[in-house]
């Protein structure tokens, strides 16, 4: 999460398996580090997102993070506020799958 807050591609990619899958439910799925990297700071977004973690639950090879945040996009006037839930699956100490659920809030 700190890597996303800083838009630090290298820090984020260092946490991932080479074959990582990122499912952004309702939007798209990326496969592999190159596609994941392209999604970090996707085109149109300005600066780094402000992310707050509200809850973190871990069991076995799975961690669930819920929180809220906001970011700016050049096509939207003012910040975009959202709530999120990320389900991370780990393999050999690295993130192999991410399931992201995001809901815009007014």
UniProtKB/TrEMBL annotation:
Gene3D superfamilies: 3.10.450.50
InterPro entries documented for this protein: NTF2-like_dom_sf, SnoaL-like
One Pfam match: SnoaL_2
Coiled-coil ranges per UniProt: none
Domain SnoaL-like, residue spans: 2-97
Organism superkingdom: Bacteria
Protein name: Nuclear transport factor 2 family protein
Taxonomic lineage from the root: Bacteria, Bacillati, Actinomycetota, Actinomycetes, Micrococcales
